[in-house]
Design a protein that fits this description.
alpha+beta, Heat Shock Protein 90, 5-stranded mixed β-sheet, 7 strands, elongated, Helix Hairpins
């Protein structure tokens, strides 16, 4: 059977309903009249149940008028139903062909279910477009971040193969540095991906947060000293149930951010307990973060302008990794303007 449009189906349905209703009404009227004459003697002066030509004329006119009115009402109703569905179908075809900005349009809110369907579809399309844009951004950013170390490695290795470079300790250290940079980018991407999918493993252990922060400071102290940045600590002894490796990774990422962007001076690192949470703050004397960038600071590959990025280095993944690790612990990280004049980062981590 060949399918027909919903609009035509509704019209045919309403026409059938009108005809059936008329037949039933006429039959009931004729039957009740016959019963009244047979059992009660009469319903009219002459007890004549036959219909005259005028009666049939009235019957036909009434049916035609009912049919026309029901058809017009059905057409009007079907337009309210069909038009949003047609725009939905059109938007679906456009999206399937790659036009992710297409949206369904509902000019009427007459039918609640249709309006909700259009709204849900547009929300889904919006998320799909956003996700597609994020994938493109990620692909471009990953390619950009991997291109520099890979190009350097390729050039140096090609130079060694051609005899242009002499294999000395300095060259090997440079090559090793590029490999370590690649490994860090890959590990950061892996951490973020696992966190987004909900599979970032947390190996919780009871640790003293003061000890963990001190270990991180000791590890990054040479980098801070080389930038004339002196760490100042105000750390309380607080027992925390967390993954010590991940927490050290998060604090290290923040302090690494300090070595890249802070001005010479001090970096204040504090920890204290509040409402069953340990609060860790890191404040520096740098330039801070501009207002617009603060909104996307903890998203992957979100950095200041490219010139600044090239000057200070970094992949734009560090703070995104911090955010992923804290969310996996049920905590959070936020930016604030430090009283020292620079950037401030506040980590909130449940103690239990």
């Amino acid at each position: 059977m060949k399918p027909i449009s919903l609009n035509r189906a509704l019209i045919i349905l309403m026409m059938k309903m009108t005809i059936y209703s008329t037949i039933i009404a006429f039959s009931v009227y004729y039957l009740t009249t016959w019963v009244a004459v047979k059992y009660y003697g009469r319903v009219s002066a002459d007890n004549d149940l036959s219909m005259t030509g005028f009666d049939w004329f009235q019957f036909v006119i009434i049916n035609l008028l009912s049919l026309i009115v029901s058809t017009l009402a059905t057409i009007k109703l079907s337009r309210k139903i069909i038009h949003p569905l047609l725009t939905l179908a059109d938007a679906s075809r456009k999206i399937s062909s790659g036009e992710l900005s297409a949206r369904a349009v509902s000019e009427s809110v007459y039918i609640k279910e249709t309006t909700e369907l259009i709204s849900d579809f547009n929300s889904m399309a919006q998320r799909l477009e956003h996700t597609s844009g994020e994938i493109k951004t990620w692909n471009a950013a990953i390619a950009h971040e991997l291109r520099t170390p890979v190009t350097i490695l390729h050039g140096r290795l090609q130079g060694l193969s051609d005899g242009v470079f002499f294999p000395d300790e300095k060259l090997y250290k440079n090559l090793l540095k590029q490999v370590e940079g690649l490994a860090r980018i890959i590990e950061d991407l892996r951490t973020i991906s696992l966190a987004e999918s909900g599979y970032l493993s947390i190996k919780a252990d009871r640790v003293n947060i003061k000890t963990e922060i001190a270990c991180v400071i000791e590890a990054i102290l040479p980098a801070l000293t080389s930038k004339s940045i002196r760490p100042v600590t105000r750390l309380d002894n607080i027992s925390v149930l967390c993954d010590p490796v991940r927490i050290r990774q998060a604090i290290l990422a923040i302090l690494d951010n300090v070595t890249r962007y802070a001005q010479p001076g001090i970096v204040l690192i504090s920890s204290f307990e509040k409402n069953d949470c340990v609060i860790i703050t890191v404040e520096d004397e740098g330039k801070g973060v501009e207002g617009e960038l603060q909104q996307t600071l903890f998203e992957p590959f979100r950095r200041a302008e490219d010139s600044r990025s090239r000057e200070y280095g970094g992949s734009g993944l560090g703070l995104a990794v911090v955010n992923a690790i804290l969310r996996a612990h049920g905590g959070n990280v936020a930016y604030f303007k430090s009283e020292l004049g620079g950037a401030g980062f506040r980590i909130e981590l449940p103690t239990k």
